[in-house]
From TrEMBL:
EC numbers for this chain: 2.1.1.193
Pfam families: Methyltrans_RNA (PF04452), PUA_4 (PF20260)
A GO term, aspect molecular function: methyltransferase activity
Protein's organism: Lutispora saccharofermentans
Family: Belongs to the RNA methyltransferase RsmE family.
Protein name in UniProt: Ribosomal RNA small subunit methyltransferase E
Function according to Swiss-Prot or TrEMBL: Specifically methylates the N3 position of the uracil ring of uridine 1498 (m3U1498) in 16S rRNA. Acts on the fully assembled 30S ribosomal subunit.
Main location: cytoplasm
Domain Ribosomal RNA small subunit methyltransferase E methyltransferase: 77-238
Catalytically driven reaction(s): uridine(1498) in 16S rRNA + S-adenosyl-L-methionine = N(3)-methyluridine(1498) in 16S rRNA + S-adenosyl-L-homocysteine + H(+)
Keyword Zinc part of the UniProt annotation: no
């Protein structure tokens, strides 16, 4: 069944209206008609099965048939602190990590980040695009929320945010003893942070800063993963360990 996100403000007395780009997508692309059922989500973890009552140029009007908590939301709050990569790699990272269950993605400018956003306007434009990718991936994968893509932060700012989480991990190629499973197995955590560097990884002083802030270094084994692979690999392991896969 087709799925769409709406603002909670669009829910009124047993009815839900759909506005914006989804209107033309519903009527012209999907050719959904009055009388058809769809699922809408309020982006806060609630799904609504609705029947379409009317479609005009700007609004789709629906009536709620039933409501329930979204099945697609993991219990663990996973935050990805992703070093900004080159080209369109961030698009893939956002898409795949959204599908797996990440709650929030923080783009991070590190010492080896090649892509530098020159102005606040560039940052906002980039984040708006990334947020649209997250929304499309959330629709496709049956998520109950759309992961929030943050405005890019410095590495120190990301470390400060990570201090609010129960556990934070940083894959590090020089770590030989502490593997990912050892770091999360049996842990009672509601939130977990994942630090992934850009192409070229982290500088030594960044690793030291992370360790000083209590971030746990882990090895991912004998294979070196690309930046666009590492986040989704670690996130998948976390979801499995916390019985979310």
């Amino acid at each position: 069944m087709h799925r769409f996100f709406i603002s909670k403000d669009n829910i009124k007395k047993g009815n839900i209206i759909i506005t914006g780009d989804d209107v033309s997508h519903i009527s012209r692309v999907l050719r959904i008609k009055p009388g058809d059922d769809i699922v809408v989500c309020d982006g806060q973890g609630m799904d609504y099965k609705v029947v379409i009552e009317n479609i005009d140029k700007y609004v789709v009007r629906t009536r709620i048939l039933e409501s329930r908590a979204s099945d697609g939301e993991p219990g663990i709050n996973a935050v990805l602190f992703q070093g900004i990569p080159k080209s369109t790699k961030m698009d893939v990272i956002i898409q795949k990590c959204t599908e797996i269950g990440v709650r929030r993605i923080v783009p991070v400018e590190t010492a080896r980040t090649v892509v530098k956003l020159s102005s606040e306007k560039d940052e906002i434009k980039k984040v708006e695009r990334w947020q649209r990718i997250a929304e499309e991936a959330a629709k496709q994968s049956g998520r109950g929320i759309i992961p929030k893509i943050a405005i890019p932060k410095s590495f120190d700012e990301a470390l400060a945010e990570a201090e609010e989480l129960d556990i934070s991990l940083i894959p590090y190629e020089l770590e030989k003893n502490n593997n990912l499973k050892m770091s999360i197995h049996g842990k009672k955590a509601e939130s977990i942070g994942i630090f992934i560097g850009p192409e070229g990884g982290y500088e030594d002083f960044e690793i030291k800063s992370a360790l000083d802030k209590g971030v746990v270094p882990v090895t991912l084994g004998p294979r070196i993963l690309r930046t666009e692979t590492a986040g989704s690999a670690v996130l998948s392991c976390i979801m499995y360990e916390f019985d979310e896969m």
